[in-house]
Amino acid sequence: MNTNHLPHILIIGAGFAGLETARGLAGAPVRITLIDKNNHHLFQPLLYQVAIAGLLPSQIAQPVRTIFRNQRNLTFQMGEVSAINFEEKYVKLNGSIMAYDYLVLAVGGRTNFFGFDAIEKDGFQLKDLETAVKTRNHLLGMFEQASHEGDPEKRKALLTFVIVGGGPTGVETAGALAELISHVMVKDYPRLVLGDARVILLEAGPSLISSYPDELRKATARLLTRKHVDIRLNAKLESYNGQFVTLADGSRIETQTVIWTAGIKATEIVDGLRVDKASAGRIRIEPTLQLPGHPETFVIGDAAFLEENGQALPMISTVAIQQGVLTARNIRRMLAQKPPETFRYKDPGLLATIGRNAAVARIFGISFSGFIAWVIWVFLHIYRIIGFRNRIIVMFNWAWDYFFYDNQVRLITKE
Ligand SMILES: Cc1cc2nc3c(=O)[nH]c(=O)nc-3n(C[C@H](O)[C@H](O)[C@H](O)COP(=O)(O)OP(=O)(O)OC[C@H]3O[C@@H](n4cnc5c(N)ncnc54)[C@H](O)[C@@H]3O)c2cc1C
User: Which residues are paired to 229 by β-bridges?
Assistant: First the structure.
């Protein structure tokens, strides 16, 4: 069937926002092209599990072609969009030009190192499968090196792991890494004195997970301390040279591992766009999620900047998903000559895990911490992972880890 006469919807990015837009247009009389530089959708909230050898990359990612196998009006193209012409309505992809009637820019974000080039070079980050696997290989490699290091000071430095950023990702990574050491590595390296191993969580501000209510911040600090994470508040990193971290107060920490979780900004393609931008390089958009002056262009998810009640919407998956849902609805409305609707974020609550049996949550205005919050976290994440097979495998993995204290993916692989 020739569908060339149908409006062409171009969606850039198969992350949370782009995926939801594409799904919301299933069955609509349109031609959708979904583009991503990777061939998979990635469940980023579980990247830290790949880094701490809890899950395999394939368990938190799903090929986009598999996801949309049954959606007839959608074609997937793998490739990196290198330029966008909003006036003439086309993008540049893989050396050619692709025209559109509606554009959905859902390109997400990237790690913001705030100009710390040394950390970008010598440190680690959790942003995609490559960076998570690189972090896992490095962490496991540190134990191997420490196991044959004769000098106690050098051994201690090899087993010192610094995580920068006390937001949810930093907290989750610190808790999980502390448990990997105390429950798993202790069995793999019986001759190593793992009392020497330290997980240090640096936060420049006065509290961890500052966007969470006070009771949850306190519970987080308590749970992490119980797992022997060394929390340092008001600790501003000044420099890192691959051997030691220097803090603003002049103190030094010898380490070969700095995991940076302290910031995020808009992705590369956004840098070159001549549009109005706000903090972190995100694109300012209308409350209808459209680009000012270009009603046929929607910018959503981490790439977009929108305020509600005077506060910028956070760069989190629930915002991206809800914006994807509304974008699909607004495109349908515009095709039916109706005006687009305004975005209102429905906050589903807050959730962060701090290792086995421990999490903090705020749902329906009620704060939980400890085991109940952890059970909620486990089931919500299993529910949200895409793909029936992945859900079963992740559930099996976590149950195994839970009962046998044994992260199964302790592989050092070639990158
Ligand atoms: C380590 C980590 C932990 C997180 N934990 C949580 C959490 O617990 N809870 C939560 O709600 N949120 C969490 N987040 C944030 C959440 O993952 C993001 O808010 C969400 O992914 C944003 O969705 P998005 O669709 O805007 O972008 P993304 O999901 O980042 O998707 C963007 C897509 O665009 C593609 N792309 C980018 N540029 C181009 C280009 N030029 N051409 C083609 N394709 C391109 C990318 O490959 C990617 O697939 C976490 C993020 C990270 C990194």
Answer: 199
Burial class of residue 383, CB neighbours in 10 A (0-12, 13-18, 19+): exposed
Fold of the CATH domain 8-37+79-111+264-335: FAD/NAD(P)-binding domain (3.50.50)
- Please give the Cα distance from 382 to 359 (Å, whole number): 15
Q: Mutate which of 12, 21, 43, 44 to test ligand 1's pocket (most atoms within 8 Å of Cβ)?
A: 44
Whose alpha carbon is nearest atom 37 of ligand 1?
107
Among the listed residues 144, 149, 153, 172, the single catalytic one is 172
**Which residues line the pocket of ligand 1, CB cutoff 6 A?**
12-18, 35-38, 44-45, 47-48, 80-81, 106-108, 126-127, 168-169, 267, 269, 301-303, 315-318, 320
Q: Is 296 a catalytic residue?
A: no
The amino acid that residue 14 corresponds to is A
Phi-psi region of 11 (alpha: psi -120 to 50; beta: other; left: phi over 0): beta
Q: Ligand 1 centroid vs 126 CA: distance in angstroms?
A: 11
Residue 270: count of CB within 10 angstroms of its CB? 24
Give distance in angstroms: CA of 60 to centre of ligand 1: 13
pLDDT bucket at 67, cuts 50 / 70 / 90: very high
Residue 218: other Cβ atoms inside 10 A: 15
| Centroid of ligand 1 to alpha carbon of 45 (angstroms) | 9
pLDDT tens, position by position, 106-149: 999 999 999 999 899 999 999 999 999 999 999 999 999 999 99
- DSSP 3-state of 163: strand
Residues of the chain within CATH 3.50.50.60 domain(s) are 8-37+79-111+264-335
Average pLDDT (39-61) is 95
- Which residues of the chain form CATH 3.50.50.100? 117-262
State the architecture of 117-262 in CATH terms: 3-Layer(bba) Sandwich (3.50)
Q: Where are the beta strands (DSSP E) in 243-347?
A: 244-247, 252-254, 257-260, 264-266, 283-284, 290-291, 294-299, 304-305, 307-308, 311-312
The ligand 1 atom at the shortest distance from the C-alpha of residue 43 is 17
CA of 128 to the centre of ligand 1 (A): 9
